Amino acid sequence: MIAWNSVLPAAIELLPAITVRVTTLIAIAWCLEFALRRVNPRWRILLWRMTAVCMPMVVVLTTLAPAISWRVLPLTNPETAREVKGIQYKEVQGDDGIATRTDLNATVVQAFPRRTTSDSSSLEAVPIERAPEAEVPLTIPANQVDRREAVEIVSRPFPWQACALYTWIGGALAMLLRTALGFRQLARIVAQSKSAPASVRAVASEFAGIQGIHRVIDVRESAATVAPCTVGIFCPVVLLPPVMCRDDECQDARPTLAHELSHLVGHDLIWNVILEIITAVWWLHPLAWKIRIAHADACDQRCDAVAVELTTGAEAYGRLLAQVALTAARVTPAVALPMARTPHILRRIALLSTGLGRARLRRNRAFIVGLILVCSAMLLGTTAIDYRLADAAPANDQPASVANTSPEEETPTQSLAQLSGRVTDKSNSGIADVRVMLTGTLRSGDKIAHYETNTDKEGRYAFTGITNNDTYRLRVKSDRWVGPTWNDAPQLQLSPMSSAVRDLQLAPACVVRVRVVDDSGRSISGANVYVRNVAVDRESYSTMVRTDRDGWAVIGGIPPSDSDYLFGVWSAGFGPSKNQLRVADVRQDVESTLVLKAGRELQGIATCANGAPAVGWSISALPSWWTFSGRPAGATIGPSGEFTLTHVTHEDYNISVGVPTGGGMTREVPVMTNQQLLSAEKPLLLKLNLPSPKSTGAIAGKLIFSGSRPRRGVSVSAMNEDKRTSRGDAFVAPGSTEFRISPLIPGRYRVEVTSPEIETITFNHVVAPKDDWEIPVEVRGQLRLTGRVIDDVGQTVQDFRIRVVKVGHLRGPWYVQPTNWRQVTDPAGKFEVDVVGPGIYQVSVLADGWALASSEPLNTDELPTEPIAFQLVRGVTLQGTVVDDAGQPIDGAVVAPQSASPQVLPQHERGFVGDELAVGTVGGKFKLAALPTGKEVLRVTHPDYLPTITEEFELNRDTQLPAIVLRRGATVHGTVYNNAGKPRSGLTVQFHDKYAYSGKDDAQAGLLASVVTDHEGRYETNRLPERLCYVHLEPEWDQDGVVRTAILPVIGKEQTLDLGGPGGIRGKLLVNGVPQANVRLQLSGESAHFGVFRAFTQTNADGEFVFSRPPAGARVLWYQTGDRRSN
To answer: How many alpha carbons lie under 13 Å from residue 762 in its C-beta half-sphere?
Structure first.
């Protein structure tokens, strides 16, 4: 419990010193504010943000021991010196018979509050002037300090400092309440607003892409807003007055949105709220009243410059500012950022023509200036002025002081951390300065717990202050070392009481330096450089980095790979460009240059199935090689269906249309693939096989939660009951309640509300369009399995790992249960793990030195009331050797036991998933320790040999197996072509033992080989068995041309298998005599979803199509209806 009786007096004593220091800091800031009025406003933004950082820093440092003390002789002034009669003590007999006594009468001159110096472990002796008859104080041993008994205290002055402190606190609370009411008022205004027209939202998306904002911005129309403003910190909303939303040409909305989005780029909203809180806390200080306004004015000047550069000229923008300022009669809450305020508007208009604010501050200069300000604040906060009497005795002549009995503060160490560990290389040497990140899974509001720290010089790290009982992912970030991906990151179950230890061993990484230039060789800053491995596992490495002012981007942490890495780059004003590199040597950095070309503009017209324009939608054109998650913003479709694609180059393009689905989200629908746009007819005519915006509606409403609020969000989906080609989805994020599913053709729909935390709710015969629909939802909460782990003698096991596998489904959506291992450190040996919904689950427990233990299948409808008990046993050891068909030992083979697999697949002969507890062979030998007793199967794999699965055998004791023989496989090579007859690079070709599977794990178990085509589209594999192998491209649905076929390999004979080729089948698709434009076609067998062979293509604007040389045979031509590939 906090001892307020000691805290408040200390605060009262420190109040004058805090006030003086903060006043000095703010005064200096205001002087700099006036001096910087005629320069780039970004300097003033930096000034006030650093002031906001330094003010609490000065307050905190003032409460600590001073690092620098200036000793000054005081003036003889009766107003600055006050006499305090010393406390008189009488003798007190201690338990040990030792008596202590002190009799002090002292006059002390006090100026600033006295603080203990940082280099002393005891209270500093106070200089005193003694009366002639005073006795020398006796030294009081530290262990007897508490035995003193005060008998008299006299002469207390009027407590004006206490009154000032209490007044200050009361006013600050009132001002903070005013700020909170402002937030509430804004929330009410946002709730009463409506979504802005599609044309306005399209403009917002355009400027968001230009300014580098990668999230969807919510733009809303509000009658309560006279001036445009941006509100919200975590989910920002741009509010526009109705008059700006009625203009179809968006003449006023374009510069307005450019201005408001600039606030988001500069994080102005967050700093606006921080400065508002500081103003509220320092409400009694006149110099603090206008801090937020000064910062907001500087931000507005910067946003004005950006808006003028991106849209209209200075004169037109100045007229808009004046108009907005004149009509802004109402007061906007302080926590919002309105576009224009009447004060200072003339100065802002006058500065438009100067262009101040367009240029960004150089990072090194801004860093140096910020460092100077922080160091100055630290100096101000750690400096004390001590007044001493002229005849004060030297320190070595002072009487002994009373020992300080308060313990020293302990810094957070690994022994006190909830999670600690060491990051090392393969030689167990510590790696310094590695960024270690810990991320939770549960949301608290719209936040997820996230912690970061750096390793010290010995590679150690520690996390303290963990407040949520949650499952966390542990990741690292370093340019020179490879860290785990999100999917592979260790998962740890932690709580405030945890004391887990997790060491990480990292492998060296490659570093690539990419320079981005235009075709004249000039560097391009701010370009987005994307990187991914071209292999099928795209999660193995994928990132994005922006170029610096010299056009360089340094991409580190790249795992060495035998597969190429694809580097793609785009920047505003240029067409995308790529380079494909082999990055395999960690000893040498790779440098590459990417040249961007401006390209040309291409006009087009997009119409829907009924001939109406697709107004408000967007058209995206990206090179066919672009497979990154990020992408530039699309071109907005105008009222007559017109659109303009900018910076088109001489490459094959894929075109898609972005259909708004509500909530600021869009659905991308493919339209054309592998098209040479510059050689296409002008204008480009896109006939979309979709209903027009005016012919569709929406199902919208609100979820009314009871019980509690869901922490993982809720999905709302609608499926047309009459025409199953029309469907839509909406996701209600945690903390939200509203949903909107669009566009939907009018008709009857089946609507489902699903989440892992609720029972599925289904509504039939819901007629669309439908608005203001309120759906009651009872939140059950996350289903959870609990357990306790003990050893073979009943003692608690505190450190272990758990894994949960879903082995059966009961009802509701088929959510996938993660099968990753999670580390648990608990003094009681207990664990809790969430599951994705009603089903049958199996829990496995693994601890060092103990055999894996698994539970019986658990039905979530019949869970036990007590935690599941796991008793671990030591297990047995299995040893063996792996050799080739000549009897020579094979190094580097991977031996995996079936007993540790999360899933055994009976449809595959002794097949199972994963390499859990697998070991590698050294000299051909392997050893698997702590295996459970019972039936066992081993799978042995090696890059140069065929996979081998042993026969099932009994394992009841330590066992030595006979040698396991691996054999060479058959060789197949070929080339992959698209429908234009061009080779395709960077595509993954997979060989399987079946042509259809029941899921991802099933397909992984049946995978025989996987290779990636090189830059000429060629591939080769030499590890195929002599059996019918089913070949397909991955991902299959995103490709065109031949994507699926089969071959019977023969060991000892090289075979060629091309997928597609020059030439092929040409035709024209007509339905009831009408050509079908931009329709996806499939050439396959009697089934549209299953079969050995499959090829895809797309019709052009006249319904014409071509398939790239499919193999001979009887085929069925299928065509897609609607915007879903499954139709």
So the answer is: 7
Q: In the CATH scheme, what is the code of domain 784-871?
A: 2.60.40.1120
Q: Which has the closest alpha carbon to 557: 502, 488, 481?
A: 481
d(CA 730, CA 664): 11
pTM over 0.70: no
DSSP secondary structure string, 68-92? EEEEEPPP--TTT----PPPBB--E
Topology given in CATH for the domain delimited by 603-640+650-693: Immunoglobulin-like (2.60.40)
CA dist., res. 860 & res. 771, Å (int): 36
Give 253-299 pLDDT, tens digit per residue: 788 888 888 888 888 888 888 888 888 888 878 888 888 888 888 88
CATH topology of domain 419-507: Immunoglobulin-like (2.60.40)
- Residue where the block lists tokens 């199953």: 724
What is the pLDDT averaged over residues 849-854?
A: 93
CB-count exposure of residue 888 (10 Å: 0-12, 13-18, 19+): exposed
Closest to 738 (Cα-Cα) out of 401, 352, 237 = 237
Domain limits, the chain = 4-147, 164-361, 419-507, 512-535+552-596, 603-640+650-693, 696-778, 784-871, 876-966, 972-1119
Report the share of the chain in percent with pLDDT over 90.
Answer: 35
> Mind listing the pLDDT tens digit for each residue in 110-154?
333 333 333 333 333 333 333 333 333 333 333 333 333 333 333
588 or 735, which is more confident: 588
SS3 sequence of 523-556: ECCCCEEEEEECCCCCCCCEEEEECCCCCEEEEE
- The answer to whether the CB of 509 falls within 8 A of the CB of 557 is yes
The domain defined by 876-966 folds into Immunoglobulin-like (2.60.40)
**Which CATH number is 972-1119 given?**
2.60.40.1120
